[in-house]
Amino acid sequence: MIKQLSVFLENEPGRLVKVTRILEDANIDIRALTVAETADFGILRLIVNDPERAYSILRENNVAVASDVVLGVEVNDKPGGLRVVAELLAEGDVNIEYVYAFVTRSHESAFVVLRVDDRERATKVLKGGGVHLVEQDEVARI
Amino acid sequence: MFYNKKAEGLKPDELEKIQDKRIRQVTEYVYRNSGFYKKKFRELNLKPDDIRGVKDLGKLPLTKKTDLRDNYPYGMFCTGLENIVRVHASSGTTGKPTVVGYTANDIELWTEVMARSIMAAGGNRRDVLHVAYGYGLFTGGLGLHYGAERVGCTVIPASGGNTARQLLLMKDLGSTVLACTPSYAIYLSEYAEKEGLDPTKDLKLRVGILGAEPWSEPMRRRIEDALDIKAYDIYGLSEIMGPGVAQECEEQAGAHIWSDHFLPEVIDPKTGEQVGEGEEGELVITTLTKEGIPLLRYRTGDRTILGYDKCGCGRYHPRMIKVRGRTDDMLIIRGVNVFPSQIEHVLMKMPEVGSHYLLVVEKKGPLDVLTVKVEVTEELISDKVRDLMKLEAHIKSCISQALGVNVWVELVEPYTLKRSEGKAIRINDLREGGEK
């Protein structure tokens, strides 16, 4: 399981600049990110190398941020890699709420972030299917 | 607590007797000393003798803010500058300020009603009273200051600005009473928490004397919880005197207008006619004892209902019940009258939203569009957009229902709406001719 930061952003020019600059100044690496948006605001979801430090630095800078736990999953970086994971979850009756990919340098495997409705069952199903779950310390090393 | 037991404890018939006598005196005084009122009396074919008492109040001409502006700077003064010991001025949003002058007796009167006000709110000579109202042309700072000295409080004349220092002073000097605007009280508590202070434990505050802007009952509860104080409304305007025209007592049941000096009535702002007892309208005040600028039937622009029944504190001085805010602040959205205080009332009851908000009015095509910008609290942020959209929709429907007109709601990041160290800015009217 890995830690994800969720940042509230108004839909206005410069908002992402502010957040990324704070992280840059603190020398924090972004491993994965996605934005879910509505007409006037968005939620920026972030996986970083040091979530605890990132969280407190963002808070200190008056950024609205929350921290929660998501699943990190390693998939084969070839056609059908993600399908295997999705199938296991579907068979286990686990609903995926959202999924997004990591920025990775190696080509053998890819990592994805999964938010599911039942994390415990998802973990069991995926482990049973031989899927490797990524832990926080691995994220720091990617 | 009473500062002037005799004056504050007057029974209705005793009050009326004093008011009858004083209204005759002030009518005579302005007729003799004010070219402005003399002219008005002539136009109305009115003689000072026509005014026998309070029942004749309706015969007197109304005075408007523009009368003061038109007679800038000293045209409304009833005495020469040799008798004026101080001047205050309110900032005009457009053009010239409104200038008011005080004789030594006026300052004494102001000090007396301020002392009454502070004690009505439970202040006493053992209190350390922190004044965070601005000192200067604005009446807030000096008004509180002299009244608090009269009571015998230890006064900290902090004035406005520099919130970090304000907190340091309050903490180190052990302030027990805070005087500032309600919005600044909220800002102080917010700021304290950011600095790692718990205002309910690290500060000794027990009473807030808050005013100079309209605030709602749920906002009062928030301030009381955030600072662990009892918060009381103080009312005033520089044209009449400054703070201390009216003050809430420990019953928290509306501000008592010190009516042995300031005679209130309520009119229909459209027709100028007095409304019946218990009806809402615009508050109009006649100064009964002022010398520098006595004003007859001054239109305050504030909407309220007056309550004349005996208060739990024992006073009969009429209370301003349900202050809706200023007529000037009223927005007309697609034909519906909207007071910012109505929106505040809805918002402050929702624990999910922060204590700051901004109303933006725009013209979109032929329609007025009101957008309520609300700060989300950090506790509310989650990874799911859905939760926030639900909250947005919930706020929108609650406000729209309360106002009877549809509004838009926009969630904004915490601490992004501008904090004010004086009067809060709640409205941004982008329509042509609207005040910015």
CATH architecture of the largest domain in chain B: 3-Layer(aba) Sandwich
CATH superfamily of the largest domain in chain B: ANL, N-terminal domain
Low-confidence stretches of chain A: none
Report the radius of gyration of chain A as a whole number of Å.
16 Å
Distance between the termini of chain A: 15 Å
Remind me, CATH topology of the largest domain in chain A? Alpha-Beta Plaits
- Please report the distance between the alpha carbons of the first and last residues of chain B: 42 Å
Instruction: Tell me the number of strands of chain B.
Output: 19
Question: What oligomerization state is this entry in?
Answer: heterodimer
- Structural class by sheet pairing and helices of chain A: alpha+beta
Main sheet of chain A, how many strands, which sense, barrel? 7 strands, antiparallel
CATH homologous superfamily of the largest domain in chain A?
Answer: ACT domain
Based on DSSP secondary structure assignment, what is the total number of beta strands of chain A? 7
Chain pair sharing the greatest interface: A-B, 25 and 16 residues
CATH class of the largest domain in chain A: Alpha Beta
Q: What characteristic shape of chain A results from the CA principal axes?
A: globular
The portion of residues forming beta strands of chain B comes to 25-35%
Q: What is the global morphology of chain B? A: globular
